[in-house]
Amino acid sequence: MSPLQQIDNPAVALGILGRGSGIEKLQLKVGGMSCSFCVASMTKALERTEGVRRASVNLAHEEALIEYEPAKVSPMQLKKLIIDLGYTVRDPRKVLTFEEEQEVMLGERRNFLIAAGFAVIAIAMMSLMWAGVVSNPPPKPLPILMPFLALATIFGPGWHILQMALASLRRGILNQHVLLEFGAFAGLIGGVLGYFSSSFPIADFFAVSVFITTYHLLSGFVSLRVRTRSSQAVRKLLSLVPPAARVVRDGTEEELPLEQVRPGDTVRVRPGESIPVDGEVIDGSSGVNESLVTGESMPQAKKAGDEVIGGSMNQTGTLLVRVTKVGEDSFLHQIARSVEEARALKPGILALVDRVLATYVPTVLGAAFLAFTVWTLGAWLVTGSPDWTRAIFAVLAVLVMGYPCALGMASPLAMIRGGGMAAEHGVLMRSAEAFQILKDVRKVILDKTGTITRGEPSVTDIQPASDWSNDEILRLAAASERASEHPLAQAILASAAAQHLSIPSASDFQATPGMGVAAIVEGHRVLIGKPQFLKEGHIEIASAIEQVEVMSAKGDTVVALAIGGRLAGLIGIADQIKPDARDAIQRMRAAGLEPMMVTGDNARTAEVVARQVGITDYRSEVLPQNKAAVVRELQDQGFRVAMVGDGINDAPALMQADVGIAIGAGTDIAIESADVVLVGQRLGAVVDAFYIGRSSYRKTVQNLSLAFAFNGIGVPLAITGLLHPVWAMVAMIASVTTVLTNSFAGRLLPKKRRGRQAEMTFNVLNMHCENCVAAIRRAVTKLNGVQDVKGDIDQHTICIVYREGEADPDGIRAAILDQGFQVNL
Amino acid sequence: MATNLEFTVTGEQKIHCESCENRIARALKRLPGIDRVNASAKEQRISVSIDPERTTLEQVRAKLHEIGYDVTTKN
């Protein structure tokens, strides 16, 4: 297919992005790159072009991002340059569909199966010959059939490899395809020479061609299976905005498609609807969930004059919004663009196998040259006449011996194995690069909400201000808040339910949006809400102001409760840190990683959380676009960076990081942008992923060494011109077998390893004295795998040291609950 | 019909304070068929009203033992 055929609309295919300041950005999907050499040569070629400021090419995502001066060079010229280099260009917005990917996969499989069929026939014939069933020199059918098999394999299923090899060779790139074709054609030539000289075994030379091509196809198929790549992040992101908006014009309301909405229009948004545009509230008040911008799950109160963002969720009231930005300028489009840009700016890695090939291929070619020289020039100097037959034989033997069959499988097999191990730990590896690069990661950037913390508010503290008990406070608060959808209300209800409190019914329910609610419960008039709300209800709260300060400083959101006109107590609600967070951070440090926290939240909350988990390096009030910039900043300092996050707002940073890690029930977009997905909420899985990456890298190195070992011995021997081509096949089978064995042998051995020691901290609200600690200790130490229990009465926390895998965090929690304690996790 | 059970703490571990009382109530309420629990630090007594269809005196006593209280009962 001609590269140009793939472009149906040049304007779209050019995918022009940014504008202004004389520099423009061009993002392209580039097809036909096969290895990191391609990336290097394309980048070099682009950057050498007049008018190009910067070019970033990403192999994994097959994308190029070019910053250029439109005055000096046109997008058409840039595109032509890439096509001239032998690559294809296509519309960046068009993703390969699942069906298309599936088709490619089936095509590769079919090719391999056909080649395998030829190989089986070849080996059958060879075996017959070796077994002496047929005489040597072989009877007619063999020298006639074998060249057909060889030609059919190289030019049939192997056709596209030949194409790629030629394309690479033209660009002076020596990759595995080139290496293969050298070997395959050496086999062909050797076979053909066999018809003229008995020194060249016809059948063996042809058979080698068939074999190495088949192995090459098998490797290609294996690596394709390992690569799972269909990034639909951007498309998903944009589907968050509703396709239509209710526009109010001249007093009438009309539902219009979003393309027809203009800045300055007025849009009505009802409760429960997504806000379709970026704008300013001109009337109404409501709570709006802006978790996609700030990552915070608590809704923000919005009233006239406040800004709202398209894609966020309007929860409680109807809003009238004056549109400020639509389409390409809107916030969501900006994020989508950041994801796209980050994808192209993501630093590439030179795959280990490519690095090895960079020296190996020239070495093999050099050896072939050496063999030729030795038997021609050398022989002439010594004996007076060059040994042409031996020279050609040696050259061909070197070339067929030079193709390391297990090479293509060495990395994928190590990854399959690593991936299997990872999956057992709840770590899903989405990209092959992640395996290689995890070992180099120094900086780990952690999002706060949902990564370090649980991502949803829960009751952390109850401070009675009168003789009402904690339980009564919670019970009455829950009764008054039962009808409310507010996350703080949900937290109180969840806490009451967790304590098995029976919640009475409330009457005369009255809500003041953004402030609190009033209700009659069991004959008492109950007021619950912001301390300010009680004050406005003429309730004396001066005595509790200090307490409110203390709780706020801890990072709690304070809800005050009045019963019968008197302050009854304060309830602290916060997004708590995950029980294993502190331990996970320590383990990161122990593994040589430097954790850093980045959050959209304010400095005070950030400081509290950072201190709780033991992080010294953190940044607060970071907007989503800037998270990716933080990652880039560290990358520019020369660090390999991993980013852990779960939200839409983390997507650009996840994409930008060398390794993006999506945690827990992260949003689809976060998962699509990440290289590694952690199943479950455990932050410690980040460290597991790191160790698994390290060990599978080791496996890859071992596999590659084994793959090259046999050829490494074979090539020098072949220079002598004495090595029969059948040894090339023997080396092939031997190396593939050892690599396979090395990849999977470890798994077959029984794995008996004691669980690692881990810590977990629970908040136990009603733990008041040493007796309580003793009771918990007694109950918990009965469980398997629990080693130590430390209680802190002042902080109401209990720290449990256990062996991972033996003790189950849920079981520990249940045991404490069974003892009658209140547990917040 | 609810049945009232009365226990007196006789073991080494006593009910110390209000939070012990609460804890007892909370722990017992995790059993099925427990209606009302009243534990008193002053009297070292625990009264429990249960639904005899769903739980038994022995279960309540076992639970109390589990959380560290040895008790006698008049019932």
Structural overview:
- The complex is a heterodimer of chains A (825) and B (75).
- In chain A, the strands form six sheets. Chain A has a seven-stranded mixed sheet, sandwiched between helices. A six-stranded antiparallel sheet of chain A has the order 6-5-7-13-8-11, with no helix packed on it. Chain A has a six-stranded antiparallel sheet with strand order 16-21-20-19-18-17, with helices on both faces.
- Chain A is an alpha+beta fold and 825 residues long.
- Chain A folds into six domains: 3-94, Alpha-Beta Plaits; 100-229 and 350-411 and 706-737, no CATH class; 242-275 and 278-285 and 297-325, Calcium-transporting ATPase, cytoplasmic transduction domain A, CATH 2.70.150; 419-453 and 578-693, HAD superfamily/HAD-like (Rossmann fold), CATH 3.40.50.1000; 456-577, Calcium-transporting ATPase, cytoplasmic domain N (3-Layer(aba) Sandwich); 757-824, Alpha-Beta Plaits (2-Layer Sandwich), CATH 3.30.70.
- Chain B has 75 residues and is an alpha+beta fold.
- Chain B has a domain at 1-49: Alpha-Beta Plaits (2-Layer Sandwich).
- Helix content of chain B is 28%, strand content 31%.
- Chain B contains two helices and four strands; from the N terminus they run E-H-E-E-H-E.
- Chain B has helices spanning 18-28, 57-66; strands at residues 3-9, 34-40, 45-50, 71-73.
- A four-stranded antiparallel sheet of chain B has the order 2-3-1-4.
- The model of chain B has no long low-confidence stretch (mean pLDDT 84).
- Classes of the chains: A alpha+beta (825), B alpha+beta (75).
- The interface between A and B is medium-sized, with 20 and 18 residues.
